[in-house]
Amino acid sequence: MWAYFEPVHAVTYLHPRARAAYEAVGLRGYWRGYFAGRAAPLGATEAAPVIAAFFNFAPPMVARALPAVWRLATPQEALRARLTGAVQALAELTYELPESHLVEAADLLERAASAAQTAGRVLGAVNAALPTGEYPLARLWQAATTLREHRGDGHVAALVAAGLDPVETLTGRVALDGSPPQYLLGRGWSEEQWQAARERLTERGWLTGDGTATDEARAGFQAIEDATDRAAAHPWQALTPADTDRLRELLEPIARAGHTLLPEGSPLGLPALPD
Known about the structure:
Layout: H1 2-14, H2 16-24, H3 30-39, H4 47-54, H5 59-65, H6 75-93, H7 99-114, H8 122-128, H9 136-161, H10 166-177, H11 181-185, H12 191-204, H13 215-231, H14 241-259
Helix pairs in contact: 1-2, 1-6, 1-9, 1-14, 2-6, 3-6, 4-5, 6-9, 7-9, 7-14, 8-9, 9-13, 10-12
């Protein structure tokens, strides 16, 4: 189900409408909008909680954005901008779908999101606490965002339990699936930090001397993904199997449209939807 709801959420990072909505409230530059929009449910926070919760960004990169962005836009303004931009983006992607399709999808996805257990999941909790959207696309995007951040919190917990730090995680990801290195460097880590992480993973037996992922690394990362999936499963108990099948059917055209926005080697790591 993550493969179907993540593209709904991801328009807030990838669509020009979303970028324009942030710029309209004074958040010019991609990363100002990203950090302000994603952190806004936490309130006018300092950098430290965001460094911890977002996990994979170098602390100086976060500190350049927070708390300075709150002098440009309040958290409330950032929240309105991110919802406005996401709804406009989804409207452009779903204009051929009837409203009844979007209402039914929003109803089912909200039912799953409302069942999410948020204890120990900070980003999931603060998004779940936001008011429900008034219109179908707003409801759909907010439910997808709650489920996405809920799953992400569990993923971070699995990485921490596996003894991986942020730069080791990203370095392993590059080795495993060939993600372009610029996605690692784009999160503020230096070449020196990347090399040090490669050395630590080599000592751990997860990389060979030339930086190739070992079988042990593949098994380790698969165990992390399995733990993430187990921890993210309980919201779906609120839906019957037939409900879940129907929701997947409803989300498929939206997810496929969202996939068209993904750059090659996207750091979201989304699997391809079945043909």
